[in-house]
């Protein structure tokens, strides 16, 4: 089967842990890759990583250097923090990011403790013992209990309040697709890294930004909007692809295999019309499969750059993904490749002379 991109790197990125505020492990991978693909790499106090490719030329619109473009994709994945250890040695969790609690039951997890990672499972009460009323109860993260398979004394020695918890899942090929945990948003971090490796002697300075704490409120991108202060920003994130049985066509948002998605809006941002128009023009000129995205709810790093440090033109490119915020997020290989192609072509054609003002 195979893909036209580095599947091993994508697998490493998705399988590596990094919940909001504790992106350390995946940040190490991103720093390693950006160091090979950009002119300089820096990390800020929040943990955002910025790899910069300096301009070979280009227009200076504000008198403080070359025209600057920020490309952003977030490193953090949804996960949990241990909030309580029961007297019986079970863990209670606080969510870091938005979980669909229906998918948590009977999942294997990894607890990141000071003494090393510990495997656990989120327990599930056998249906034989549930009443009809209990069977119909809506589940929540509050109800989740992690079983480490140890007695209470051993658990107390191994785990403490504040330890992080991530889902334990491998990333594999699934037909023409990739499936696993944390494709949101590591598949876009991957696309950004691939584009960075293809850019040579750009006319503008490009900052490739791997952001933190997106899943808890776009916090890293908002800080970077001030610190990087670009003339133009393009964010990458996954988007809904509900093209599955039981969902009406007008609720699909995007469809797998139909190309990369050019965002028109989500609940956090309305992208700049001239930016998304140019993204469409580039895709059409390069023969890159694409579709338009109108996302009813859900925010992205795009909003973090739009007005944080004054009004800025923004655009966004999305990877259509099924089963978001589960451990089986699924994206089509062609859509991933199209996302890399569009981002690369857009950056290669950016001169700093396009007028995005309204």
From TrEMBL:
Q: Its GO biological process terms? A: proteolysis
Q: How is the cofactor bound?
A: Binds 2 divalent metal cations per subunit.
Question: Which residues does the record give as Zn(2+) 2 binding sites?
Answer: 184, 215, 325
Q: Which residues form the active site?
A: 214 (proton acceptor)
Residues engaged in binding Zn(2+) 1: 74, 184, 237
Cofactor field: a divalent metal cation
Q: Which GO terms describe its molecular function?
A: aminopeptidase activity; metal ion binding
Q: Sorted alphabetically, which keywords does the UniProt record give?
A: Aminopeptidase, Hydrolase, Metal-binding, Protease
Family according to the record: Belongs to the peptidase M42 family.
Question: What is the name listed in the Swiss-Prot or TrEMBL entry for this protein?
Answer: M42 family metallopeptidase
């Amino acid at each position: 089967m195979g893909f036209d991109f580095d599947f091993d790197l994508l697998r490493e990125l998705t399988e590596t842990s990094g919940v909001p505020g504790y992106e350390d492990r995946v940040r190490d991978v991103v720093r390693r890759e950006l160091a090979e693909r950009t002119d300089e790499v820096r990390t800020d106090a929040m943990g955002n990583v910025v790899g910069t490719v300096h301009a070979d030329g280009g227009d200076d619109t504000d008198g403080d250097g070359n025209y600057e473009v920020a490309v952003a994709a977030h490193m953090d994945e949804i996960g949990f923090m241990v909030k309580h250890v029961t007297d019986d040695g079970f863990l209670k969790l606080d969510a870091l990011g938005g979980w669909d609690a229906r998918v948590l039951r009977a999942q294997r997890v990894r607890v990141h403790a000071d003494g090393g990672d510990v495997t656990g499972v989120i327990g599930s009460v056998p249906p034989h013992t549930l009443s009809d009323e209990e069977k119909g109860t809506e589940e929540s993260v509050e109800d989740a209990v992690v079983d480490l398979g140890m007695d209470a004394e051993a658990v107390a020695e191994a785990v403490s309040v504040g330890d992080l918890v991530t889902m334990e899942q491998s990333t594999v090929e699934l037909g023409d697709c990739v499936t696993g945990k944390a494709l949101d948003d590591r598949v876009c971090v991957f696309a950004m890294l691939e584009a960075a490796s293809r850019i040579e002697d750009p006319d503008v300075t490009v900052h490739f930004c791997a952001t933190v704490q997106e899943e808890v409120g776009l916090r890293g991108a908002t800080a970077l909007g001030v610190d990087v202060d670009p003339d133009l920003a393009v964010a990458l994130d996954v988007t809904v692809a509900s093209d599955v049985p039981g969902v009406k066509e007008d609720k699909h948002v995007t469809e797998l295999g139909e190309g990369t998605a050019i965002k028109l809006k989500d609940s956090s941002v309305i992208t700049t019309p001239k930016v998304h128009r140019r993204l469409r023009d580039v895709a059409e000129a390069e023969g890159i499969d694409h579709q338009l995205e109108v996302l009813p709810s859900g925010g992205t790093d795009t909003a973090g750059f739009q007005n944080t440090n004054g009004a800025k033109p923004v655009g966004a490119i999305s990877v259509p993904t099924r089963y978001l915020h589960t451990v089986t997020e699924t994206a089509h290989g062609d859509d991933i490749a199209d996302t890399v192609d569009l981002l690369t072509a857009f950056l290669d054609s950016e001169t700093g002379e396009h007028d995005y003002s309204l």
